[in-house]
Design a protein that fits this description.
Elements (H helix, E strand, L loop, with lengths): L1 E9 L8 E6 L4 E8 L7 H13 L7 H19 L15 E9 L4 E7 L3 E6 L4 E3 L6 H18 L11 H14 L1 H8 L15 H6 L1 E6 L3 E7 L13 H14 L1 H13 L16 E8 L2
Antiparallel strand pairs: 1-10, 2-3, 3-4, 4-5, 5-8, 6-7, 6-9, 9-10
């Protein structure tokens, strides 16, 4: 069923790479995973690495939903232990190590099972070059609120006509740290909405994560390629990120490949270190992409 696949994986500006990926050919499971550090400092790598370890050892006789559920339960145990509690429900939502995910399981019947949380994304390209976005980025509307506040903070700091991209690297980094700290109440409020009706789904080890995770099956009629991306590979844009930018990103990846997409994102981030021209929450996020070419 699979003719070929490529993987691109790059560390961003964080202390460690909190992204992960799964290439479990035996079970037919592939995934990109994006860890997020809890507000209290519990690393996102705890959840992303736990999810990877579990899916890497999955066997062919189980469904993807069963495997992700099993992995989520292990995330809950490790979250609780690291926070000094006996159950994940006792850990405040904003303090949990979490991860977004776009995962698939391919079947010889031509079916594809998928599971999705957070702002990792899944796309399918068809033989007529149409692109189908299987997932929806529920996180972007929360990020857009934070970004709007960050832009307002910059406006208050800058003199008319001043361009912080001309500042020294140290001065830019200090300004970004100060701005993040000032907007911490918004970040905490956003995190408190994980796995709630008016929030967004994320793997955090709770039963709620299993309830709000989007999953299902579809047939790969006339499908030629499958693309999975973490949000670090989304093309930076002058407008608020969302579904339209995701489709532009997927089109670029299908047209030019993951390596060229990564190069373009890196270039745009490098020329805007203050995150002014392309509003975003990090200078450079961790980047993970998997592109699968199918046998027609």
């Amino acid at each position: 069923m699979i003719k070929h696949y490529t993987i691109h994986y790059q560390h961003g500006v964080g202390v460690e790479n909190e992204d992960a990926y799964v290439l479990n050919e035996e079970a037919g499971i592939f995934a990109v995973i994006d860890g997020a550090t809890g507000i209290g400092g519990l690393p996102g790598k705890l959840s992303s690495a736990t999810m990877k370890e579990s899916l890497d050892t999955s066997e062919s006789g189980t469904t993807l939903f069963q495997e992700v559920t099993r992995a989520n339960q292990e995330v809950g145990k490790r979250n609780a232990e690291q926070n000094g509690h006996d159950h994940i429900d006792n850990v405040p939502r904003q303090d949990r190590s979490t991860c977004g995910m776009a995962a698939i399981k391919l079947y010889e019947s031509g079916q594809m099972e998928f599971a999705h949380t957070g702002d990792c994304m899944l796309f399918i390209e068809y033989s007529n070059n149409d692109i189908r976005c299987v997932t929806y980025d529920h996180v972007s509307k929360f990020d857009s609120v934070t970004i709007a506040s960050v832009e307002q903070t910059w406006d208050e700091l800058l003199e008319p006509g001043e361009n912080p991209n001309t500042w020294s690297e140290d001065r830019i980094e200090q300004a970004l740290r100060d701005i993040r700290e000032k907007n911490m109440p918004i970040l905490k409020r956003n995190r408190s909405n994980i796995n709630k009706k008016h929030g967004y789904s994320i793997i955090d080890g709770s039963k709620d994560a299993e309830q709000f995770m989007e999953h299902g099956k579809l047939y790969l009629h006339n499908a030629t390629r499958i693309l999975m991306l973490s949000d670090g590979l989304q093309l930076p844009d002058s407008k608020a990120n969302g579904q339209q930018v995701w489709m532009e990103t997927a089109t670029y990846a299908f047209d030019h490949g993951l390596e060229k997409l990564q190069e373009k994102v890196n270039h745009l981030e490098k020329e805007d270190p203050a995150c002014i021209r392309y509003p975003r929450l990090k200078q450079a996020d961790d980047k993970t992409g998997v592109l699968i070419e199918l046998i027609e």
